[in-house]
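Re: beginner question about structure tokens

> Can someone show what the tokenized structure looks like for a real chain? I only ever see the sequence side.

Sure, here's an example I had lying around. Input first:
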Amino acid sequence: MTDTTTLNTKPTTELETLLAVIEGILQEREDSTLTPVNIGDSVSFDLRKNCSVKGVVLGKTEKRVKVQCASIEGVYQIATKNVVVETAAIIDSTEEE
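And the corresponding structure tokens:
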């Protein structure tokens, strides 16, 4: 085994080998859990907790997809300054804010 001084001053083959093995295992796990996604597939994903998006894949790269969103379901909280009112609700005079 290597002493502490050697570990601090120069690279060790034992650590490099261990790192390579761990990286290989992580890559295998990542690849095995991914479902192949193709252009035209219907997909869904969580935008945030309690808010999911459904749509169709328009394009893809090795790690990302571009999705044409068809519907968003759930609750999404956003700053008031970032929304545009398209149709105003009728306010009932008995309703409190």
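Each token stands for a local structural state, so reading them left to right follows the chain. The radius of gyration is 25 Å.
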